[in-house]
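User: Here's a structure from my thesis project, written as structure tokens. My advisor, Dr. K., wants to see whether a designed sequence matches the one we expressed. Can you design one independently, without my sequence as a hint?
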């Protein structure tokens, strides 16, 4: 039986407020300064000094500007680190605009295919509503970036530089999503009218040609062949002629992307540890690499990341960056704001509860470039962000180990840093992972 709030209830609540210690002073402080400034604990700034026992040299940070390409920046940053060291190219960058173009294009096709596949369902079905809510966006995951590289390769930033729409993507996203929803109307109508597979394919190809035009106007033409010209840190001149995006990748990076595995830490009842998972309708390249997550305990999860850092290789990771963090100072720590003490209540939730009750999910991808190990245990982590050098310590952040435990959900490591048992699970379950719903938090796009 439902019950309304009575005037007596409100009188008691006001009485409780008046009886709360220092409530008058705290009210004035919060009203004038806001919740975060009033509850900030400055001890975090002392505890999280940017000094680490393992600290990789990675150079200046990049800047994704007003776009949601963090996952792409983070992945390309891990790759550019090896290029910088091997070829003596200080602050070299790969073209995020090039992969952005192909991601938008492939996501459009992925959307069309899903629209056709669900055309027998009403528009208010959960799956169709999920598709139409965001036909495409800037975000993504590691496996989606590897699918793009497998198909299209990559290029230096000098070959396909940033444009207005790559650095500030809201206009492009609004225009492209308008087109995709409009096209969804036409495709669903064709299916309802009994159109043949050939008719559907012809119509989809017409739509994709128009998408390509939109992307070419806003992001530029993706190069098919180019010369790589540069001067190294010793001032020596180099030119490599007649490269393609795939031959550039093979020659200058050469990673076997199949060696890299996405690990997640999702301590929820529906995802037992030491099993492989995928997410329905999560991807970009039809027929390309699919998402595969190995769920590990937080101890195994961190151990794998540390082994890769100890070997001198940075680590792509996904987290909920906005939780308990100071963006300007570049500190991420559960103790940075004492809201429990400020409001005399408890906001405590477990990591699993936050995932189950929609309080948290992966929102941003960055790169681990260091860790401080004390008495065999990690205490804090060095983080390369992609928000430019005006925040944190020249763009680098510090995350406490406690924050890592609570808000880091995904890392990507080379399989050689996994245990034999973990690799055995990947091999045994790769072709039959547990399928998660499209709206599962482990399908969130960074």
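Assistant: Designed independently from the structure alone:
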């Amino acid at each position: 039986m439902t019950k309304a709030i009575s005037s007596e209830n409100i009188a008691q609540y006001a009485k409780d407020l008046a009886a709360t210690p220092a409530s008058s002073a705290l009210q004035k402080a919060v009203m004038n300064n806001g919740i975060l400034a009033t509850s900030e604990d400055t001890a975090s700034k002392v505890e999280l000094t940017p000094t680490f026992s393992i600290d990789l040299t990675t150079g200046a940070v990049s800047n994704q500007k007003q776009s949601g390409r963090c996952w792409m920046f983070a992945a390309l940053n891990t790759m550019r680190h090896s290029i910088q060291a091997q070829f003596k190219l200080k602050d070299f960058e790969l073209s995020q605009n090039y992969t952005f173009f192909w991601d938008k294009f492939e996501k459009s096709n992925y959307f069309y295919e899903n629209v056709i596949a669900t055309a027998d369902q009403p528009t208010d079905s959960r799956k169709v509503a999920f598709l139409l809510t965001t036909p495409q966006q800037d975000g993504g995951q590691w496996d989606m970036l590897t699918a793009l590289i497998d198909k299209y390769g990559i290029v230096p930033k000098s070959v396909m530089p940033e444009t207005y729409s790559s650095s500030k993507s809201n206009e492009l996203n609004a225009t492209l999503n308008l087109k995709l929803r409009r096209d969804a109307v036409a495709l669903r109508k064709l299916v309802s009218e009994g159109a043949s597979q050939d008719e559907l394919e012809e119509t989809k190809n017409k739509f994709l040609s128009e998408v390509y035009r939109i992307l070419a106007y806003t992001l530029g033409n993706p190069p098919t062949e180019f010369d790589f010209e540069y001067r190294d840190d010793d001032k020596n001149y180099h030119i490599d002629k007649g490269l393609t995006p795939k031959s550039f990748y093979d020659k200058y990076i050469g990673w076997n992307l199949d060696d890299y595995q996405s690990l997640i830490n999702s301590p929820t009842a529906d995802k037992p540890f030491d099993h492989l998972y995928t997410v329905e309708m999560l991807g970009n390249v039809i027929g390309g690499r699919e998402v595969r997550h190995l769920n590990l305990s937080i101890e195994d999860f961190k151990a794998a990341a540390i082994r890769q850092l100890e070997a001198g290789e940075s680590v792509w990771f996904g987290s909920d960056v906005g939780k308990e963090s100071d963006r300007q100072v570049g500190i991420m720590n559960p103790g940075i704001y004492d809201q429990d003490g400020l409001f005399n209540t408890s906001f405590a939730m477990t990591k699993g509860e936050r995932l189950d009750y929609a309080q948290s999910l992966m929102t941003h991808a960055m790169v681990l470039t260091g860790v401080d190990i004390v008495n065999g245990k990690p205490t804090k982590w060095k983080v390369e962000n992609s928000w430019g050098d005006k925040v944190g310590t020249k763009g680098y952040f510090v995350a406490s180990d406690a924050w890592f435990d609570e808000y880091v959900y995904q890392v990507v490591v080379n399989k050689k840093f996994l245990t034999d048992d973990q690799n055995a699970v990947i091999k045994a379950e790769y072709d039959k992972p547990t399928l998660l719903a499209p709206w599962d938090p482990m399908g969130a796009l960074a």
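When you compare it with your expressed construct, this may help: Residues 291 and 394 are 33 Å apart (CA to CA).
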